[in-house]
């Protein structure tokens, strides 16, 4: 419920996500289809305490891999 309310509801209007089931089903399908960890690693984006990355770095890596520009944004909580 938490994940749906926090993340899933923003998918309305952009995807055919008319139910909680479809939202999570699509998430699982995308996870099986694309290895985000590998996509990022192949573009030099790896977890580190020394370097930081821009949202555009992530977007470009995804664009190169799957030919689609993702929407990437950063939110900082205080």
Can you tag this structure with a few keywords?
78 residues, mainly alpha, 2 domains, 49% helix, globular
Note down, in words, how this protein is organized.
By secondary structure, this protein is an all-alpha fold. It has two domains: 1-33, no CATH class; 34-78, no CATH class. It is 49% helix and 0% strand. α3 packs across α4. The mean pLDDT is 83.
Number of helices: 4
Strand content: under 5%
Structural class, from secondary structure content? mainly alpha
Beta strands, count: 0
Computed Rg: 14 Å
Flag low-confidence runs. Answer: none
Order of helices and strands: HHHH
Q: Count up the domains.
A: 2
Average of pLDDT: 83
GO biological process, one term: RNA catabolic process
InterPro entries: RNase_T2-like (IPR001568), RNase_T2-like_sf (IPR036430)
Family: Belongs to the RNase T2 family.
Pfam families: Ribonuclease_T2
Draw up the topology in text.
Blueprint: H1 2-6, H2 20-33, H3 36-42, H4 55-66
Helix pairs in contact: 3-4
Summarize it.
The chain is mostly helical and 78 residues long.
């Amino acid at each position: 419920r938490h994940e749906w309310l926090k993340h899933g509801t923003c998918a309305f209007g952009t995807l055919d996500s008319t139910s909680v089931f479809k939202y999570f089903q699509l998430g699982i399908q995308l996870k099986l289809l694309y290895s985000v960890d590998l996509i990022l690693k192949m573009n030099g984006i790896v977890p580190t305490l020394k370097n930081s990355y821009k949202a555009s770095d992530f977007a470009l890596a995804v664009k190169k891999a799957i030919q689609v520009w993702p929407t990437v944004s950063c939110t900082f909580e205080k």
